[in-house]
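seq as requested:
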Amino acid sequence: MKRIKVLGLLLLGLIVIDGGVMAYVHHTNQVAAVQRQKVAKQQRAKRTAQKKRQMAAKIESAKFDKAKGSNQQITQVLTDDNFVGTALVVKNNKVIYQKGFGYADQSKNSLNGAKSKYQILSIQKSITAVCVMQLVQAGKLKLTDPVSKYYPDLAGASKTTLRQLLDMTTGYRQQTPLDKAGSEQQVVDFAVKHTSFTPAKLGTFNYSSINFLLLAGIIRQETGNSYKQYFQQHIIDKLGLKQTGFVADGLGQNATLGYQADKDQITPTYAKLAPETTAQMAGELGTGQVYMSAGDLYRTESAILKAKLISAKNVKILHTRTATGTYGGGVYNETPTRIRSHGLGYGYESTVRISGDGQNAVVLLSNYDRSAASSLIPATKLYDELIKGNLN
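struct tokens:
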């Protein structure tokens, strides 16, 4: 009997030891798998960064010759970049180049062209900022107004101003993304409840789209109309834009699909569409829910700078750089004579380089988001050559 008990205890001990060994092995395998994933992610990041540097070097080293045709040289730069989308170059108010590259919808063999429509993403912020300045110009708003005037329950609202919303120097950040599509008012209410305030960041540039969503809500409160209605009347109708609208309504004729490249992919394969939910688009209120053609986007950004939507004085006020960066009023004011706007997401990348007088510009709208090859690089190269006088 004692022998049986001893054997039983030994067997139990072996089971416990075996279970412990198995648990240890499982844990060790899990740790190793996590480590392999971490290493693989780091390696992909390195490959992506290396490809991006190589592509940038290739684009930046391209030599332009005034004796050669601009059309050919611009096309070569964009071809070398594997650019997918529509390119527009304007010199002294005249379009000198406009061309589509790649597919708008590869499954239908639909090509990108001059009238193709793209999500402009964060470039919409530059237009929302103008809508706010229109209300300032009309005496309905003041840039010094505290945010608490419109959002008394928002954290830190008594310490922040409309000017700081425009410059993204509030210290606000939305903590929780919108979980379902809703009306503009529902989107704003949700954002107010899920926005944090960091006092240490007050007065310092801190990019966060929530600032412009809140501005869209202020436009609603002050006008009694939806942001969408205001945008339609004071931007689209005012400028006679025919290829501009809200993504939620569909892009209609000349629509594009947004494609997503793998992290280190440069050559387009059109293998993967970028995901986009109705909740995500609703949550882009005032910040990235509009589509445009390249022509409509240039017309809009140029009209802003030419004082066709607000006075020249208010354009200057709006585009004043912050003390902590080049951002101000929805755009990057790189120099007094050069402005940059950029947007990225849902398979799209939008880039504008434009002179302070609105007469010279490079617009690149892409429906292929590639981490390894940003369109900022060819846009900068082409704009620099344009300003040097090498494009005619």
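DSSP finds eleven helices and 16 strands in the chain.
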